[in-house]
Amino acid sequence: VFEELEAPLDPLLNRNTYVQGGVEYISLGENVIALSPKFRLYLTSSLRNPHYLPEVYNKVTVINFALTIQGLEDQLLGIVVAKERPDLQELRQSLILQGAKNVAMLKDVEDKILKTLSECKGDILEDESAIKILDDSKRISSDIVKKQEDSREIEQKIEAFRQSYRPVAVHSSTLYYCITELPNVDPMYQFSLAWFVNLYVYSIENANRTKELYRRLKYLMDAVTLNLYNNVCRSLFEKDKLLFSFILTTKIMISCNQIDQQEFKYLLSGGEKADIKLPNPDESWITAKLWEDVCRLEQLPDFAGFVESFAANQAQWRAYYDAEEPQLIKLPAPWDEKTNRFEKLIVLKTVRPDKFVLAITEFVASKMGPPYVAPPPFDISRSFEDSNCLTPLIFILSPGADPMNALLLYAEKMGFDETFQSISLGQGQGPIAQRIIERAQDEGSWVCLQNCHLAASWMPTLEYLWENMDHYNTTTSFRLWLTSYPSEQFPASILQNGIKMTNEPPTGLQQNLLRSYHSEPMNDDTFYTGCPGKDRAFSKLLFGVCFFHAVVQERRKFGPLGWNISYGFNESDFQISVLQLQLFINQYEEIPYEAITYLTGECNYGGRVTDAWDRRAIVTILEDYVNDKVVSDPNYRLSALGDCYGIPLRNEHREYLSHIANNIPNFPSPLVYGLHPNAGITRDLTASRILIDSMILTQGGTSGGSDTEVEKQVLVTVDEIYALLPNDFNIDAAKRRYPVDYSESMNTVLVQEMERFNALLGEIRSSCVNLKKGIAGLIALTPQLEAVFMAIQHRRIPASWMKKSYPSLKPVGAYVVDFRERLNFLDRWYNEGKPNVFWLSGFYFTQAFLTAAMQNYARRHRIPIDMLTYDFNVLKLQSTNQTPEDGVYVNGLFLEGARWDVAKSCLDEQLPKMLVDTMPIIHMFVSVRN
């Protein structure tokens, strides 16, 4: 069952029965059924964390059968002991059975003695049969007690041996709980306990052996950890592989008391509100946020005195701040010696958050070893070897990834290409897919159901078909392959018991190029040498197209700085482009560069591009890599950053592979992609934020400290938020003071903004009040209140607030301060009149304000509003007391990816590490559309 029980069950659950002729009856639908007094109804749910409404608890008894940590440890301990010393495990089992048998025999002896005493008529000392029974009972009892004592000694020895393997069980249970919360990151990341136990047994059987117990324990723990990492990683997207490594590392270190819980929570949430005792010592490089974060660090006991030390050693900290690779250098004295590796992570996240992901990579490698930052490559054959006819194989799709080519090639390799069947699911395809599966089960062929996410309504049928497969009705060679984008509707049981795989485009320039040269058709010698007499031109232009493909893929990682819209460029775009390149080179005497760039840039790749600026950019980028100089100039560079971006002089396939592997960096400067170096900082900051947000999702409950401590911390934050909330705006008074006016549309804007902010204010206030009541136990802690609790605990904005809020990425404390500033802006407008300069980004609904300003102009000059447009004039002022005759003055706008040169009144390149530039006041004035 799910969180809501089906309505047809209500008569049973509510005991809606009646008695007729001494028999109890119940109505179920249209049927009347006699109810047996022995009838019992049991309902089960496989939901990981169900939230049932109070009425459900009134109808049924809810019992939590979730596995406990201690229960899992004991189960895993029994498995490892049984594998290491099966004789001892068998002996232990026999002793348990013998103990139970002895207890039963002692009970029989006691019963026999009591019966003899009760049946004896006269003097028991004269009853020889009674005395004999008592003597026999005494002898039997003594024998049993002796056996029990012997058994206890053996059991103690066995238990001592079992406990020597307890570290393996504790370690492995810690590992299991590393994967239980992964579905919070992506619904496809689900693994069952049975799957984990099978992996655990496999690891025990294949771990290195030795007679030394300490080394054997280490081999076992290392084997379980590495096998879990490798098997889970093939199911994860690239962005989540380092996340999983970090989860493994921190969970293991926390279980070994190597990480302080308070510090771990601080790394994730950033601590409480900073107590700024000293002023910012140098605003030229220490931003307000950086100084606030530095001051917040002193909340941790091990960082007492950090603020004073930071202020007194600015030169050393400035060098650390400006370093290219701060994660590899020492902290300024004395903090390098005073902090451990994890605390150094906290410092780096505070001072250089853009390098946090790289620092985590170094941290994991130092604690766990290099294999944990080098996930295994996609290997379809390994996944197939781990499967059987009852194990579905699931490809989790991502933009730009299409596993069908790899699957078709593997089917051909395994001899299933002629019987392989594939169907793309969608409307009306379910029954066809069912027939194909049933036939393939019988014939032992392979079936691939593509795009399962498009057939959500048919997924229960797929789950039913899979659950009814067994070794009796399924041929051993049968395989069920599935492809799907992440979907909440995908059956959990199939995910938990299937083998999941991802096959994303590789990360990094070098890896992208290598993949292109190793994939179809580039790895086909017939294709690569398919331009006789023009090999040099073909190989060089091929390299240019490969470089172009890698660049457009990598630019996606820079967000809107790379492309205004994220496009799913994939291998098919690349393959058709290189095939056309070969065709044009062979077909024409002179290479038609214009036709090649048009087809590749405008059609093959540009066909996906919907933004005009992106289309212009993609064609311009391609022209740098596909032109006459690429062929004719031996010194031509695909990037001006160095000789490593040159083109090999020889034409052989292996020569290009060698050049890529030995010369091309995997993570070059953003300049290689045509972006400013600051774009790399933006990309890295985004990656750091995503990793931290995902890490928080995997914490499940609290991320450090007892429940009571966490509740106290949340209550303090809630009280601080509540104290900042003003009273609601008086809408009636606002309407009287600023009535609807034909000549002044801003009156309506003010009232509407007040109404919108009142709704958000009411949501925040009510959730704070109800959360305090819920923690105190005065009301039920609903799933919505739990979500608010978790969000505030991790300094995030609750989702229920965001539904009624303006967009914001701030932490909850800064969000509430910003919210209060917006309310103050409207309050000043109400009390002091229309402002001279409008805070444009302070509006809830900016479009209404812009329309009102245009409407005022249209009504004043009697011009239809659809004939008007906005023009802009950037002033050289940060504040003014004047009001423009036409249009409005606005502030609160920022530039990202560029800066405004006030002296020259024009756009200019960013300054290093200055990601955002504040715009001066802008005069937005209305003009007639040309």
From TrEMBL:
Residues 389-502 form the Dynein heavy chain region D6 P-loop domain. Residues 538-679 form the Dynein heavy chain AAA lid domain. It is found in: Cytoplasm, Cytoskeleton, Cilium axoneme. It comes from the Eukaryota. GO terms for cellular component: axoneme; dynein complex; microtubule. Pfam families: AAA_9 (PF12781), AAA_lid_11 (PF18198), Dynein_C (PF18199), Dynein_heavy (PF03028). PANTHER family: DYNEIN HEAVY CHAIN 2, AXONEMAL, DYNEIN HEAVY CHAIN 6, AXONEMAL-LIKE-RELATED. Belongs to the dynein heavy chain family. This is Dynein heavy chain. It comes from Anopheles maculatus.
